[in-house]
Design brief:
It is built from 7 helices and 7 strands; from the N terminus they run E-H-H-E-E-H-E-H-E-H-E-H-H-E. By secondary structure, the protein is of the alpha/beta class. The two termini are about 35 Å apart. Helix 1 crosses helix 2. Strands 5-4-6-7 form a 4-stranded parallel β-sheet, sandwiched between helices.
């Protein structure tokens, strides 16, 4: 039941107040990270107490996560493809109002686990610095085992979106 003496926020208002995307707040509700309260109509709502809980949570900063584009091609002869991939992802993000903090590119096989920027990206995911990774297609991220990597990213609070499809959902680890 809503305590009418307290200020309540919709998912969108709450997300704006704490500096994250509305979809992130909905994901937190779905995976139990920060369950929403529900109105009789079923709509989510949050209170000032929830705002304080998130903003004062020192061990997990949720305000400064980066949106990153990751692009990869297999060989140096495909540099033009790399450029087109990056341009496509920039347009994809711009059309959705997404602010990109960084663009990471690699030239190397999707089987190669020694790609400099890919490894840096994974370390940033584990350090909880990444909000969303934008890729052109999942094989541009990794050739095999994509679902495992997507689950790992989700475990650390990151999402992977593909320009060729949508948010890539996966099973939990």
């Amino acid at each position: 039941m809503i305590d009418h003496d307290k200020k309540v926020y919709s998912s969108g208002e709450f997300a704006a107040k704490i500096g994250v995307d509305r979809r992130t707040v909905q994901r937190w509700d779905s995976n139990g990270t920060l369950p929403a309260k529900r109105k009789i109509s079923g709509h989510r709502y949050y209170t000032d107490e929830d705002v304080r809980k998130v903003l004062n949570k020192a061990e997990e900063p949720v305000l400064k996560r980066k949106n990153v584009i990751y692009a990869r091609v297999s060989s140096a002869g495909q540099k033009n493809d790399l450029k087109h991939q990056t341009e496509f992802l920039r347009e994809f993000c711009n059309a959705r109002g997404v602010v990109i903090s960084e663009v990471l590119e690699d030239i190397g096989s999707g089987l190669n686990d020694k790609r400099k920027n890919w490894n840096r990206l994974l370390y940033d995911v584990m350090d909880k610095k990444i909000g969303t990774i934008y890729i052109a297609h999942k094989d541009r991220f990794v050739r095999f085992g994509f679902d495992w990597f997507a689950s790992m990213c989700e475990h650390f609070g990151s999402e992977i979106f593909s320009g060729s499809i949508r948010k890539i959902s996966c099973k939990k680890l």
